């Protein structure tokens, strides 16, 4: 099975990032690589991403 790579940019999107990541991770595809690029957000984006 092929690997699907998904790149998600995040900058001050703490209120949306969890729903975004859930929508990617709860797919039927088993082989997903998720790359999150957080460009020094000033909000709680990093905390949401690492939880």
Protein described:
Helices cover 35% and strands 27% of the residues. The chain is α+β, with helices and mostly antiparallel strands and 51 residues long. The protein has one domain. Strands 1-2 form a two-stranded parallel ribbon. The longest helix is centred in the middle third of the chain and has 12 residues, at 14-25.
Give the tally of β-strands. Answer: 2
**Termini separation:** 28 Å
State the strand order across the main sheet: 1-2
Q: Which secondary-structure class do the elements indicate?
A: alpha+beta
Q: How many discrete structural domains?
A: 1
Radius of gyration from CA coordinates? 12 Å
Strand content: 25-35%
The stretches of 5 or more residues where confidence is low (pLDDT under 50) are none
The total of helices stands at 2
Mean residue pLDDT: 90
Spatial shape: elongated
**Helical coverage, percent range:** 25-40%
Reported for the largest beta sheet, the result is: 2 strands, parallel
Q: Can you tag this structure with a few keywords?
A:
single chain, two-stranded parallel sheet, 2 helices, 51 residues, elongated, 35% helix, alpha+beta
């Amino acid at each position: 099975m092929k690997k699907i790579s998904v790149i998600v940019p995040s900058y001050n999107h703490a209120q949306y990032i969890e729903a975004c990541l859930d929508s990617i991770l709860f797919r039927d595809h088993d082989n997903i690589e998720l790359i999150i690029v957080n460009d020094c957000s000033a909000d709680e984006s990093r905390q949401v991403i690492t939880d």
